[in-house]
Predict the structure.
Amino acid sequence: MRALRAGTEGPLVARDRASRSEAKPLRLFIAADVPEDVKTTLAGTLAPFRDRIPGGRWTRSDGWHVTLKFLGATWPRLMDDVRGAVRSVAQTSRAFETSLTQVGVFPSARRARVLWAGLADPEARFGAMVKRLDDLLEDHFVPENRPFTPHLTLVRLTPSRDVGEFAPDLVGAAVPSRPFVVDRLVLYRSHLSPQGARYEPLASEAFGGVSSLPTS
């Protein structure tokens, strides 16, 4: 039998190490939620367009949220830092009112890769939270270097398309929405599958520091 050299691992040991939780990063993001009735109204407004966007992958309305920071693959050992950042930003934030505004695209209508519904942010409150999250997590995650546009992702297009070819009346269209209050941050874990993404809340911090989910 061939002896293992120092510093090498047999397949059983390697498999055991791969099964440990530390070897499995979590796909995480930090977001603000949107009320269910607002999402239902938006879904109804967009229904006539669903068959007019060839190759578009519509996101599920029950998963619509305002992503403030996408963390991506995150090692479990960083969870305390992530939770702490969410808590800190929530504790120093005040509840504010917003509403959906209009349909937009990234990066442009001629080369659209994402269609989204924007949110009103006249005092840049969303952007301020993004900046604080970036500052608190910059040792582990790359800060965002583009201006922040609060939005709900509606459709992803691969490859990019000229929206004017199939839905010229969609981009810039007003979105009916009642005003609603943003008053908490949620740390989500994203579970990917062929049926689409499923989002699991790991922590929820109300503005002012009241937590509604366990953080341990």
Remarks:
- The chain has one domain: 23-206.
- Residues 38 and 177 are 6 Å apart (CA to CA).
- Confidence is low (pLDDT under 50) at residues 1-19.
- The helical segments are 11-19, 36-46, 79-91, 125-137.
